[in-house]
Amino acid sequence: PPAIFWLTRDFRFSDNAALAAAARGPVLAVFFIDRLLMAQGAASRWRLERGLRAFDAELRRRSGQGVLILRGEPDQLLPGLAAALDAAKVHQSDWPAPEMRVLQARVDAALQVGGRRLVLHPGHLLIHPRLVRTKTGGSYRVYTPFARTLRGIGPDQPGASAPERITQAAPPAKGLALENLNLAPDLHGGRAVLDRHAVPAGEAAALARLDAFLDRVTDYETRRDRTDLEATSGLSEHLALGEISPRSLWALARARGRDTPAASAGVEKFLSELIWREFAWHLLIEFPQMASAPWRPEWRDFPWQGDSDQAEAWRRAETGIPLIDAGLREMRVTGRMHNRVRMVVASWLTKHLLTDWRLGLAHFQDSLSDWDPAANAMNWQWVAGCGPDASPFFRIFNPETQAERHDPAGRYRQLWLETRAADYRATLPRSQRALPPARVTLEAGRQRALDAYASFRQTTGAQE
Ligand code: FAD
User: Where is FAD annotated to bind (predicted)?
Assistant: First the structure.
């Protein structure tokens, strides 16, 4: 029987159980430009469009027909499409973000009116969240025991892949042309800059990157914090869009560790980072407000400051602190930022500037091509000190010592502050009001943060 494959954040053909199930008979692959997508940040929409192109090209190769792209809400459009095709089921890979969960419920209810249904398939995570539980059946709040339990059970094996030849049903509606979609018109001049610095998108590119990374994984543990070296995998944007599944990643990396003993320590470290991603998603499922409310409720009373000229200077990469401005520029020009620098810029905003972490989270959400609702929220709360298993608030990064340690020859700073300065300028709006010069110094900002924390603890009795 014909079926619908509702493409969302799973732009891959291998280990894609939803696509494999739908493609057992004639299938129609459909993608919606809906409110949920348009609420994402600009850079991640720009990146998603590139992923969609790559997926569409591969689908054309396998079926002779591309993805049907429609503008509108899935709960309003899917019932009509399913009726026109006489499809009983709509298959989707589960992307367990809270907003998607709401949409899935609406879609399923709308389909059931016509006696049809939505079928969700796992694949975005290593393992079903209900399986990783404490001895008393609760959810983990601390990474290390979470990781131990997950490793003990072992992640799921990669599931079914889509067939090499796919038969697509004729689309009952006319779709939008991929060539002139422009999902991120709000990027303005930034689009051309991002295009210039883009790395290849799509499933084949993800596998090639993994392969190249595994060739140098031996050095991962010792070099991953170096901002001036390409020592990490660069796979986060592929994972964000499901161009590769974490289960496949796990299996492929483990196999390399077994075949090449010298690589196994690096592989294990890499897998433990993948478990951080998993931990973030499990936390988000447990606490859907994680992007907007502190995990630890007493932190609602922390005296975070709202938006200010200083926060704006941070967003514009004009703090005057070289490592911080370099990282924020890297993000505007490429959509990416080195993990170590993400921690340093986030610490500066939330501690030296005492600014509400949610302003930083929003800026990252708008600017990151690897934006991931779980990882972004967990990490901002981790740096700000209000998350589960967070870095204690009093641990305040010193951007100068961080730079000396992780950018010893200054190459990273030079690249983003000098070599690519013109690229960064091209991303800026044409006219901007001038900002007063920065007032916070390294030591004064640090002391102010510590004082605020001390009186917060005194009045609320908050624990570290
Ligand atoms: P690698 O070192 O090769 O790691 C492999 C994979 O492990 C990554 O692709 C990622 O999926 C996962 N991973 C690694 N570190 C973390 C981490 N700290 N938390 C969760 N997963 C992790 N990552 C995102 O994917 N999207 C985000 O929106 C995001 N926002 C962040 C915000 C802040 C304030 C901070 C400090 C970190 C954020 N991260 C986010 C985590 C991390 O910085 C990136 O995953 C990493 O830089 C991606 O580079 P990579 O793929 O080369 O990483």
Answer: 220, 232-236, 270, 370-372
Q: Annotated binding residue at 450?
A: no
Distance 347 CA to ligand 1 centre (A): 16
| Ligand 1 binding pocket includes 277 (Cβ within 6 Å) | yes
Closest residue by Cα to atom 46, ligand 1, is: 339
CATH of 3-123 given 3.40.50.620, 3.30.360.10, 3.30.1490.20, 3.40.50.150: 3.40.50.620
Is the ipTM above a cut-off of 0.90?
yes
> Quick check: CB of 235 below 6 Å from ligand 1?
yes
Q: 199, 335 in Cβ contact below 8 A? A: no
Cβ(58)–Cβ(202) below 8 Å = yes
Q: What is the pLDDT along the chain (464 residues), one digit of tens a residue?
A: 999 999 999 999 999 999 999 999 999 999 999 999 999 999 999 999 999 999 999 999 999 999 999 999 999 999 999 999 999 999 999 999 999 999 999 999 999 999 999 999 999 999 999 899 999 999 999 999 999 999 999 999 999 999 999 999 999 999 999 998 999 999 988 999 999 999 999 999 999 999 999 999 999 999 999 999 999 999 999 999 999 999 999 999 999 999 999 999 999 999 999 999 999 999 999 999 999 999 999 999 999 999 999 999 999 999 999 999 999 999 999 999 999 999 999 999 999 999 999 999 999 999 999 999 999 999 999 999 999 888 888 899 999 999 999 999 999 999 999 999 999 999 998 888 999 887 789 999 999 999 999 999 998 877 66
CATH topology of domain 187-286: 1.25.40
Which residue has the CA at smallest separation from atom 2 of ligand 1?
232
Q: What is the dihedral of CA 67, 68, 69, 74, to 10 degrees?
A: -120
Q: Whose CA is nearest to atom 45 of ligand 1?
A: 236
Residue 236 known to bind ligand: yes
Crossing angle of helices 322-334/190-197, nearest 10°? 90
- Residue 274 gets the label, from left (phi > 0), alpha (psi -120 to 50) or beta, of alpha
Residue 339 CA, ligand 1 centroid: distance in Å: 6
